[in-house]
Structures are given as structure tokens and as C-alpha cells.
Amino acid sequence: MTFSSVDLKSFLISLKNAIETCSEYDIIPHIDEGNHKPLSVCDDAFGICKCTTTIIFGEYESNTSEPVSDGLLNYLLLVSPNTTTFWNFKRKALLNNELSVNPELRFTQLILNKYPRSYETIFQRQWIIHRYSYLNDHEFLLSELKLCDKLADKYRCNYGLWQYRRFLLLHQQNPEVNCSFLFSLRNYCYSFFYPLAPQLQSIFWSQDYCFKSATQY
């Protein structure tokens, strides 16, 4: 499969629309038969055919002297979210007012739904929240902690995510939010250790233990 310049532009526009309307995505295997589509959208999710990877990364590598378009950058990050250089391009564009903040937050959440352990994506989200004063928004903080719960359910031993949650808590003193953290930490301890040693249930279900753990974390 090859992309002409027109095909590539059309693909990136379709990808941009999918990013704006969907909350899940995946990289799907290439099947060289039938009505092949590089991008498939179904309900609230979209799939990027794996055959596009070599083509579009080749496009990026062959045009290193030119600024990377946001459409191309979105693709690169969806496929390779732990590449610091790509996120640096995003931060530069935000600082130059070339991108809007809220869509970028939504974009990081889209990636984290697929790659909850992507530390570079978590850091990008943290940078945006800190840079653009979201830490002063109580409702946003509560929704962000709920997002942390959702992502932690996918992979509990997620150091980057727990560090991010700690960052959120260190920048506010609201008791309701702190209680939310303690409750989540208690549930985490219970769900992680209970299968290993059921006799520890009473220990990790203790509020005193959770509070001590939270203050030492």
C-alpha cells in the first residue's frame, strides 16, 4: 500500500475527526484483501491499520527540515506515545498558541485509555494542568482523580499514574479530594494484596493503615 500526498492529507483529516469524536482506538492488523481501509471508525472507537505505520513514519523522517504538522504529530503519538520529541513539539505548539488546551487534554486521555502506562503521556497531561492553572478548579480535580481510578483499574502497578495522583493532591488541600485518594488507596491495597494473602485483608482494609501509607507515599 502507498499513500499519495492527497491520500495522506485525506487520511490525516479523517484521523483528526476520529480523534475529536471517539474515546477509544487501537492499532489493527493489516489484511491484504477486500475493501482495505487505513482508518476504520465504529461507534465511539476507531482503528488504525498497521500498514500505515511504515508509510507515515517514513514521511516524517523524510521531512525533518520542515515543521511537523499537528495532524501528522497526532498520528505519530497515537502509534508511539512514549517518544519525548513528539510531545516536545506539542508543548511548543501550545506555548505558541497554535493549539487549544482542552482538545489536547482530551487527546492525552484518548492515548491513556489505550496505553495507561505511558509515562510521557501522563507527564504531558500533568504539564498542561500545571501550566494552565487547572489545579485551581475543584471540579476538574475530582474528575481527574476519577480518571486515575479508571486507568489504575487497567494496570494497578502503574508508578507514573500514582505519581501523577500524588501531584494532584499536593497542589490542593480539599478534604473531599483527600478522602477520595484514601478510599482509592484502600481499595488498591485490598485488591492487590488480597489474592496473595487473604489473611492480610483486615490490615489493608484499615483506615489507619491507609492514612499512614498515603502520608508516606
Automatic annotation (TrEMBL):
This entry carries the following GO cellular component terms, namely: cytoplasm
Q: Name one GO molecular function term.
A: protein prenyltransferase activity
Which keywords label this protein?
Prenyltransferase, Repeat, Transferase
Q: Name one Pfam family in it.
A: PPTA
Q: Which residues form the signal peptide?
A: none
The answer to keyword Repeat applying to this record is yes
Record PANTHER family: PROTEIN FARNESYLTRANSFERASE ALPHA SUBUNIT/RAB GERANYLGERANYL TRANSFERASE ALPHA SUBUNIT (PTHR11129), PROTEIN PRENYLTRANSFERASE ALPHA SUBUNIT REPEAT-CONTAINING PROTEIN 1 (PTHR11129:SF3)
Q: Which family does it belong to?
A: Belongs to the protein prenyltransferase subunit alpha family.
Protein name in the entry: Uncharacterized protein
